[in-house]
Specification:
By secondary structure, this protein is of the alpha/beta class. The protein has 7 helices and 8 strands. Strand 7 and strand 8 form a beta hairpin. The longest helix is centred in the first third of the chain and has 15 residues. It is elongated and about 70 Å long.
């Protein structure tokens, strides 16, 4: 586990102790960016970007979420000595909070700067993309570009259905799953393509005459780790 992941883990634990529902590595629909941490409590949204250094780059990441969350903060390691600099002034100006995490005690330091409440945040653009899987699927701050997405949800749905119904045909498979595709025809084309490309782990296709059937793949995968078997 990388240093940034370990740092984010402490922030996640801190928020959970405060009774926030915490989602990790969230890529909302229609956004190009992935939020490290999205916390929800009483329909209020708090987004936290986690980085190993206090820089204008991480401030810019947090700034991009300002209109879509009630609070936005950055979380970085605690320095040996505090100093107020331009970065602090930028945070205060834009209402972005600062959480300092202690590396040596494993505890969270007191918030240095409290985030400003944005009452009219367009938070539904964030909450509309949240799901239970994002709480545990990928660790916040990971450097493997892991995050839960509608495509990955569809892949998991396919894997579950195929393992429960070996030899299922395309028509029956699509009827059994909740997929993200806009139409049945696009689902048929895409599921066949991505299965044959090996992107849907634990699943393979076989042709039975003109019918395409889906079977569990015996190759090692992480399906059992994700609770799909």
């Amino acid at each position: 586990m990388g240093k940034e992941e370990l740092l984010a883990e402490k922030v996640v634990a801190y928020l959970q102790d405060l009774h926030w529902e915490v989602y990790q590595e969230v890529k909302p629909k229609g956004f190009g960016e992935v939020a490290d941490i999205v916390a929800v409590q009483s329909n209020r949204v708090w987004i936290v970007e986690v980085k190993m250094s206090f820089s204008l780059a991480v401030i810019a990441q947090a700034y991009n979420w300002r209109n879509f969350a009630h609070w936005v903060s950055i979380a970085v390691p605690s320095p040996k000595r505090y100093k107020r600099d331009f970065g602090y002034e930028v945070l205060k100006h834009y209402g972005i909070g600062l959480i300092r995490v202690s590396d040596y005690t494993g505890s969270l330091a007191e918030d240095i700067i409290k985030p400003r409440l944005l009452r009219k945040a367009l938070s539904k653009k964030i909450t509309g993309s949240l799901c239970e899987e994002q709480k545990t699927y990928a660790k916040a701050g990971n450097n493997r570009s892991e995050f839960y997405s509608p495509f990955k949800r569809t892949c998991n749905e396919v894997a579950r259905a195929v393992h429960a119904n070996p030899g299922i045909n395309m028509k029956s498979l699509i009827e059994k799953i909740d997929h993200h595709y806009a139409s049945v025809s696009s689902a048929k084309t895409s599921l066949r393509y991505w299965t044959d490309a090996g992107k849907i782990q634990g699943v393979r296709t076989e042709r039975d005459g003109r019918i395409i059937k889906f079977y569990p793949d015996n190759k090692p995968s992480n399906l059992s780790e994700r609770g799909l078997t």
